[in-house]
Amino acid sequence: MPKTASEKCRLCAKLDFSDVLLKHGPQGTNCFEGEPCHKRRTYYGKRARYNKSRREKYRQKTGKSPQTIQVPLPKTTWAEVTFYRETKNSPTHAIALEVRRSEWDDKQQKMVERVLVNHPPFHAKGMTEAIVGKAMRDALLKFNEVLGTRLTKYEILNERHPSLCPICGR
Fold first, then answer.
1. 0.90 exceeded by the pTM?
2. Residue pLDDT, tens place only, 1-46
3. Do both 99 and 43 map to the same domain?
4. Residue 161 has what DSSP assignment?
5. 111-139 pLDDT, tens per residue?
6. How far is the C-alpha of 34 from the C-alpha of 25, rounded, in Å?
7. What is the 3-state secondary structure (H, E, C) of 37-82?
8. What distance lies between CA 164 and its chain's CA centroid?
9. How is the beta sheet containing 94-105 ordered, strand by strand?
10. Would strands 154-160 and 94-105 be described as parallel, antiparallel, or unpaired?
11. Do the bridges between strand 154-160 and strand 76-84 make them parallel or antiparallel, or are there none, so unpaired?
């Protein structure tokens, strides 16, 4: 069985390198080990990509590659929310909202994704969960009004560290 992922290292991989040194370096927990930690951070940050390529290589090696077909797909529209917070349980620092559309491009022969409309990021400091929820619902209703769509929820939830907040510009 593979070793379970370290929650501490997974959260560390989301941080900016200067924050890593402050939090886990000599002034912090002193658990930063240099090269091993660089490799671990890279692995956790690109884990999905590494696993995907590993599966593809295995399929090619064993001859079990799935047959690939290309079919033009219909346009899809969805709403995304980005939370700037340290963990799911920690307070939300800021929130950014946007609506994206994916559509088939005949020239490139692939799906192309673009942002249709966005709500600028806003700080959620001091806001209760109910106020944040209402602001997100109001933004979704406004997106529907502007685009003429019927989006009912945020399909994709992204999470970023507060040090990457676009409002603070740290």
1. no
2. 667 777 888 788 878 788 888 888 888 888 888 888 878 888 877 8
3. no
4. -
5. 889 999 999 999 998 888 899 999 999 99
6. 9
7. HHHHHHHHHCHHHHHHHHHHHHHHHHCCCCCCCCCCCCCEEEEEEE
8. 12
9. 110-123, 94-105, 76-84, 154-160
10. unpaired
11. parallel
Asked if the structure places residue 128 within a domain, the reply is yes
Residue with tokens 């490799």: 39
Flag whether pLDDT at 76 surpasses 80. yes
Do 125 and 153 fall into the same domain? yes
The amino acid at residue 151 is: L
Measuring CA to CA, how many Å separate 112 from each of 80, 105, 157?
16, 6, 20
For residue 170, being part of any structural domain is answered with no
Look at residue 68 and tell me if it is in a domain. Answer: no
d(CA 19, CA 160): 13
Task: Give the Cβ contact number of residue 101 at 10 Å.
Answer: 16
Domain that holds residue 54: 7-62
Letter string b/e over residues 1-38, b meaning 16 or more CB atoms within 10 A of that residue's CB: eeeeeeeeeeebbbbeeebbeebbeeeeeeebeeeebe
- 57 plus 80 within the same structural domain: no
